[in-house]
Amino acid sequence: xxxxxxxxxxxxxxxxxxLVIHLQGCNFKxxxxxxxxxxxxxxxxxxxxxxxxxxxxxxxxxxxxFDGGGVTFTGGECTVQHNELLSLLKMLHEEGINTAVETNAxxxxxxxxxPYIDYLIADIKHTDxxxxxxxxxxxxxxxxxxxxxxxxxxxxxxxxxxLINGFxxxxxxxxxxxxxxxxxxxxxxxxxxxEYGKSKWTEEYTVKNGFVNEKTLNYFTSEIGKSGITIISx
Amino acid sequence: MNYTNSQITEMAKTLFKTNxxxxxxxxxxxxxxxxxxxxxxxxxxxGEMRKAKALCKIAEILPLNIDENQIFAGTQDxxxxxxxxxxxxxxxxxxxxxxxxxxxxxxDIEPSEEIPAGEIERVRxxxxxxxxxxxxxxxxxxxxxxxxxxxxxxxxxxxxxxxxFRAALKLGVLELKKQLEEKGGAGREAFSAxxxxxxxxxDRYRTTAQEQLENATGDNRARLEKMVEALERVPRYGAxxxxxxxxxxxxxxxxxxxxxxxxxxxxxxxxxxxxxEPYRNGLDRESAAALFKHLLVFYNVADRSWAISQNVILSxxxxxxxxxxxxxxxALLDAYYDMNLPQPILSVKLHKNTPQKLYRELGRFxxxxxxxxxxxxxxxxxxxxxxxxxxxxxxxxxxxxxxxxEPLIMGKDNGNTTNSWLNLPKVxxxxxxxxxxxxxxxxxxxxxxxxxxxxxxxxxxNLEVICDEMAKAxxxxxxxxxxxxxPFLSCFMGGIETGIDLRDTQRQGTxxxxxxxxxxxxSVVADSLTAIEKLLNERPQDADKLIDALKxxxxxxxxxxxxxxxxxxxxxxxKKVDELTAEIADRAADIVAARKNxxxxxxxxxxxxxxxxxxxxxWVGATPDxxxxxxxxNYGVDPLYGxxxxxxxxxxxxxxxxxxxxxxxxxxxxxxxxPKYFTADTYEEKGMEFYSRIVKPxxxxxxKKGVSPFYLYVNVTTPEILRKVLANPEKYAPSGIYIxxxxxxxxxxxxxxxAIQQDIIKRLDPKSASIGDCQC
Lengths: 234, 776
Fold this sequence. Notes:
Chain A is an alpha/beta fold and 234 residues long. Chain A is 30% helix and 22% strand. In chain A, strands 3-1-2-4-5-6-7-8-9 form a nine-stranded mixed sheet, covered by helices on one side. Chain A starts with a strand and ends with a strand. The mean pLDDT of chain B is 94. In chain B, a hairpin with a 2-residue loop joins strand 16 (739-742) and strand 17. Chain B is an alpha/beta fold and 776 residues long. Chain B has a six-stranded mixed sheet. A five-stranded mixed sheet of chain B has the order 1-9-11-12-13. In chain B, helix 2 crosses helix 3, helix 3 (47-61) runs parallel beside helix 9 and helix 17 crosses helix 18 (455-481). At the A-B interface, strand 1, strand 2 and helix 1 of A face helix 26 and helix 27 of B.
C-alpha cells in the first residue's frame, strides 16, 4: 500500500484519538485540494508497505486509541487502493480495532467496504453532476448513488461539504437532497474554504477567490439545517 | 496592616522592580569571609559545631535592610553570587570545562571600595587552602581523562534539597531546640546551636523594624508594627496565621541559604499549598494570594533572579488516591499568574482524581504569551516509581521536586541529585574508536576498538568501566563536600531524630539517601546503533568507512551521512528503534543503579540534561545517526531535535515505551506546542483541551501497561513568536519579562545567554509536537 502521510489527531476524523493514514492517489482533481501531493496514483515520495506490515503498524500504535479511537484512512482518496484497503479493514475488524474511512464516495464498490467500517466520513461536494465534473474532473453519479444508499440503509454517516465561494455556496440543492433521504443517523460538517495546502501545489493554484464570509457560511448552514440534518463541527 | 489586597500587590511588584535594579551581591562574600575567619580561629570544634557557630556569627554581622515595600522581613540575596551560567550573558557553550572550580565564584564579584580586589584575592586564597577545596581538586585530578571531554562529569552537590519546615512553623524553633537538647548528643548540640542563627536574625530584623517605626506614620507604621509583632513571635514560637507562617518560613529559608553560600541553588519549597493551608484560618483566596505574592518576590535575587531552580510544587494526592488540592493551591496559582516572575519555578502534581477545576485554572498559564507555565508531574506514577525503590507509603504524599525535576521526599531524602553526569554518546564514540576522541584525536581511555557487528554489547561493556570510574569520582566529590557541614539544614532533614549531619559520608543522617546520575543522550545512541545496523545490512562494503567519516565530521562523506541519517529514528512511533531506545535506557539505568555511593546506597538514574545536552554535545564528535560533531545531543528522554517529524501522537507512542520505572532519579521531557492547536474560546476551556490532548494521552492512558510517564514541561509557542520577541522586546515584552521554560526551571527569556535562547528556539521542534495529521 502507498502512504504519503500518517499521524495522530483527536476526534477530528472519527471518534477519540486516531491514527490518520493518508493513502496515495486520488481519482478527483479538486483545485482547492489541501493535500495535492496525494493526488498522483503512484506518488513520488510515498512509503510502500504490505497490507500485513501496515496492519502490524496499526496494532503497534493502538496504545494511543483512547476515548474510542482507532485508525482512519483518508487520502488522496483511500478507496483508490480498494483491494488492499478491503483486506486491511477486514483484518482490523477481526482485531477489534475501530476503523474510519474518509472518502469522496466515488468508489463503485464502496458497499463492499461498509461492513468493516465503524465510522464513515464522505464528502458531498456538489449535487449537480455538470458542476461537479467541471471542478473535480469526475461525474458525481456514483457519489450520489453511494451516499443515497448509505442514507437509505440508515447507517452512521458523517457527511462533509467543503464550502467554496463560486462553487457550491447555494444551499438549495443540498437542502433538496437531504430532504429526499432519511438523515436521522447522519451528521453534516461544513468546512469553509482554506488555503493551508496552497503552498504544496507544484502546479498553478487556480482557485482565485474561494473564501466564504461569515454571512454566507451562516446562511448556508441555517438553510441546510432546515432539512433536519444534524450539523456538527469537529 | 491597613493595606488593601491591591496595595499589597502593588508593593510586591515595586519590590520586585527594586530587586531587579540590584547589580551587586556582596552578602555571600561577607558571609564566606566571616565563616573562614571563624573556622580558622575555632579549628578545635567539630565540623558541625564550627559551622553552627559561624552561621550565628554571620547572622550577627550581616548588613540588614527592610525595604519600604516589604511586608515580610528577610532576603535570600546574601546567599547567592551572580554566577549562574545559563542566565549569564557571557556564557558560551564552548567554554565549559569538565571541572567545577569552587573558587571561581570569587571571579564573579566586581571589586569595590568596600571589597577591594586584594581582599577578594586574599579570601580566595584562604578558601583554596581548605580541606574541602584540596580534596575536591584531588577528586577532579583523579578523573581528568574522563571529564575533560565529558565522558562523565561529577560535582559536589549543594542546595538541591527540600527542607521540611512544617514542624518549625507549627511549634517554633525553641521547641525544636528543646527536642534536640532532650535527645542529646554532639550532633544535636551543634544543630541546636545552628538554630540560634535564625533567632539572632529575627531579633535583628525586629530591631531594624522598630528603628524604622520611630519616624513612620499611617499605613507604613501599621506595616512595621505588624512586622515587629510577628518577629517577636516567629520563628521563635509557632505561627498563628498565614502572615506569621510566611514570615517564619522566609527567615528559616534565609538562614538555610546562608549556610551554603554562595551555592545554595535549587533548594525547593515542597508542597507549598499543604505547608501553608493550616495557617489560612478562613482567609479568602484573594487575601492569601496577596501575601503569597511577597513570598514569590522573596525568591527573586537581584538583576537576573540569580537564585535559580527553586521549586514550588502544588496539589497531588494522598496514599488512597484522594486529591489534596486546597484553597492555598488556587491562591498560590493566582499569585504566580499575576506576578509572572522568573523565580520560584512552579510544578503541579496531577493524578487520576485531579479536579477539572485545576485543569481549567491552569489554562491561563499555558495560553498567555510570555507567562510562566508549570511543569507537570504524574503523581500516580511517582507513587509507583518511588515505592518500588523503597520509599514508605506514608512518605509518598510528600513527594516533591528539588531543583528542576528530581523527585525527593520532603525533609527525608538526600538524593545528592546532580552528583554525576553520564554522556552515553561520548562512550559510544570511545567504543567505536578504541578510546580515541574524534574531536581532538587524543587517546582518552584504554578501550579495544569495537567490531561494528557487536557494537551494542561492546558499548555496554565499556559503559560499565566508565560508570565505575564515575562513581569513584562522584563519591570523592561528595566526601570533599562533607567537610562543609550543614547543621541548620540537617534540623529539617531528619537530623533531630538521627543527630547526624546530612552530609556525613560515614553515617546516614536522612531517612533516604542516594546519589544522582544524569544520563545523557539515550536516543542519539539508539539512533546511531540503528544506523550502524542499516549500514551493515544494506551497504556492508562501506562499513569500514564509518570511523573515518565520523573523524572527518562527514566532510567528504556527505552521501554516506545522508544514508545514515535516513535510518529510522526514535520519536516516530517506529517499533524497532523505539524498543532499542527503551533497551538502552533500561540497561544504562541498571548499570548506573548498580553503582554505590559513599553510604553504599544506589546511584539513581536521572534522564535529564539541564542544558548539558548542549555542553556535552559540544564534546561529542559526529555520531553514526548523521548528527554533526559538536552539535547538541538529545534533550532528556526526547528525540533529538529534527528527528521526530510525525507529530505528537507518534512521538508520544515512542515515549510511552521507555522504562519510567527505572527513572527514580527523574527525567526531563519538553514539548513545544503551537497555540493554534487549541481553539476553545476561554482559558478555562483551553485548559481542558490541554488536558485532553497533552496530559491524558501521556499520563493517564488506560491502555498503557506498566509505569506511565511522570514528567513534562511545555512551552506553548512557536519559533516565529520567539524570534519576534527577540527582535522587538519592547513590543512583545514591554515589562522586560518574557517567561519561558528551560529544562526544569523557568527563566526570563530575555535574560538568557544567546546560545541558550537559540537552543530554546531550536528545541521547540514543531514537527515533533504537531497535533493533527500535519496537513495544514
